[in-house]
Amino acid sequence: MVNVLFVCLGNICRSPMAEAVLRHKIDERELSHKILVDSAGTGDWHIGKEPHEGTRRILDQNKISYANMAARLVSSEDFQKFDYIVCMDKSNGENVRKVPGGEEAKLLFFMDLLPEEELREVPDPYFTGNFEQVYDLINAGCDVLLEMVIREKL
User: Fold this and answer.
1) Which of 40, 76, 77, 107 has the highest CB neighbour number within 10 Å of its CB?
2) Which positions are catalytic?
3) Helices (H) and strands (E) in the chain, counts
4) What distances in angstroms separate CA 14 from CA 3, 19, 30, 117, 154, one per listed residue?
């Protein structure tokens, strides 16, 4: 089993959107028995809460499930469990490094999957309100990530 973890700040907007989108793509390719996806945050404000209403709305529009998703914090155990730890921005990458064991973790920054994009971080729609822009970036990046996982690990 290959394990992928997406990380953002509160784990209610970007990382759960990426989790849901990648799971959907994995299901479409009938690979859910080979790839596990999760998400976590580096801040504790929303622990246990479902994804943000803007994330839920855009996922509903695209017929993508977010059932049973709840915000949680990145933990030391994640560094042993996950093959890919994908951070939505540099600040959250720095925060992951502060978690015990995180200083040695191999991190991937989401926008590195999309080198042709001018943006180098996934904007936080909690502050910008632009869930459509984030969905477009995440949808494109998850295509690249899935192909990378297949090529490298399956």
Assistant:
1) 40
2) 8, 14, 124
3) 6, 4
4) 18, 9, 24, 17, 26
User: What average pLDDT is seen over the chain?
Assistant: 97
Q: How confident is the model at residue 42 (pLDDT cuts 50, 70, 90)?
A: very high
In the chain the domains, ranked by start, together with CATH numbers, are 2-153 (3.40.50.2300)
CA nearest 122: which of 140, 137, 107, 139? 137
The tokens 């989401």 sit on which residue? 110
CA distance 112 to 152: 16
Name the residue among 48, 39, 32 with its Cα closest to residue 4.
Answer: 39
